[in-house]
């Protein structure tokens, strides 16, 4: 039997020089499986390590000059 199409698929978008934007019907949990309430339907997750409110982005990536591409980093 076919699965119904997901009406609200989850997308994760790496922002150039910034966070990961997560949209859709996602669940955010700790490593131990406890729910983290995102408070909204789209969240920005820190990938620079400088946020004071991890796992969320607080804009600190700008202050530290974080750089990363939006797509795969093929320079490695
Ligand atoms: S990506 Fe924004 S604070 Fe880390």
Structure description:
It comes from Spinactinospora alkalitolerans. InterPro entries: FeS-contain_CDGSH-typ (IPR018967), MitoNEET_CISD (IPR042216). Residues 31-67 form the Iron-binding zinc finger CDGSH type domain. GO terms for molecular function: 2 iron, 2 sulfur cluster binding; metal ion binding. With 76 residues, this protein is mainly beta. Helix content is 7%, strand content 16%. The chain is built from one helix and three strands. The chain has a three-stranded antiparallel sheet with strand order 1-2-3, with no helix packed on it. A hairpin with a 5-residue loop joins strand 1 (11-14) and strand 2 (20-23). The longest helix is centred in the C-terminal third of the chain and has 5 residues, at 60-64. Bound molecules: FE2/S2 (inorganic) cluster.
């Amino acid at each position: 039997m076919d699965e119904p199409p997901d009406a609200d698929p989850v997308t994760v978008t790496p922002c150039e020089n910034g966070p990961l934007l997560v949209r859709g019907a996602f669940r955010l949990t700790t490593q131990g499986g406890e729910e983290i309430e995102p408070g909204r339907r789209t969240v920005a997750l820190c990938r620079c390590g400088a946020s004071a409110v991890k796992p969320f982005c607080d804009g600190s990536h700008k202050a530290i000059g974080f750089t990363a591409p939006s797509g795969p980093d093929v320079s490695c």
